[in-house]
Amino acid sequence: MNIRIVRDHLEPEIEHSFSKESPGSRKSATYIWKSSAGPKLYITVTFDEFHTIEGFIANHEASGSSMHNVCNALGRMISLGIQKVRRVDPDGLTEYIEKQIANLSGFNSETMWMHDTMGAVLSIPDVFAKILERHLEVTEAIEEIHSGEEENE
Fold first, then answer.
1. Exposed e or buried b for every residue in 89-123, given b needs 16+ CB within 10 A?
2. How many Cβ atoms sit within 10 Å of the Cβ of residue 68?
3. Vertex 61 angle, CA 43 and 83, to 5°
């Protein structure tokens, strides 16, 4: 995985946009996935200064459709789980996200979802799993860099 420094912290080299930093705002990355059927899926992940995931927001482009509502609901459930684990057992967050990735991976649907750098998957749950997996990889890379800095001091 390629990592580059952006705004004095590490970010993955993938298609996403950053929210503007202002007092009281959260850092976030929005991922845009295109479907073979036409509509796009927008996933926004919020994270703290250490790139540890805080929230997960899913939005299907076909507003008002059943798919839009299901995506929104699943994104909320993922986000609520992450927020609860962060409060109750912050050290268990990585394990919790790994379990969510395993539970979301492997579904098939009639629609293929494509991302410019993360490739193609066969379902919306697979999209969610790919994004969670990417954020774990970045968090682990940042932790490795910070542990190396501490050893050098």
1. eeeebbebbeebbeebbeeeeebbbebeebeebbb
2. 17
3. 30
Contacts of 8 (CB under 8 A, 6+ apart): none
DSSP state of 87: H
> Average pLDDT, stretch 123-130?
94
Report the alpha-carbon distance of residue 30 to residue 11 in Å, rounded.
12
- CA–CA separation, 61 vs 42, rounded Å? 7
Give the C-alpha distances (Å, rounded to integers) separating 89 from 31, 39, 56, 112, 147: 27, 37, 18, 35, 22
Tell me the pTM.
0.77
What's the pLDDT score for residue 125?
A: 93
What are phi and psi for residue 123, nearest 5 degrees?
Answer: -165, 165
- For residues 109 and 123, the answer to whether their CB atoms sit within 8 Å is yes
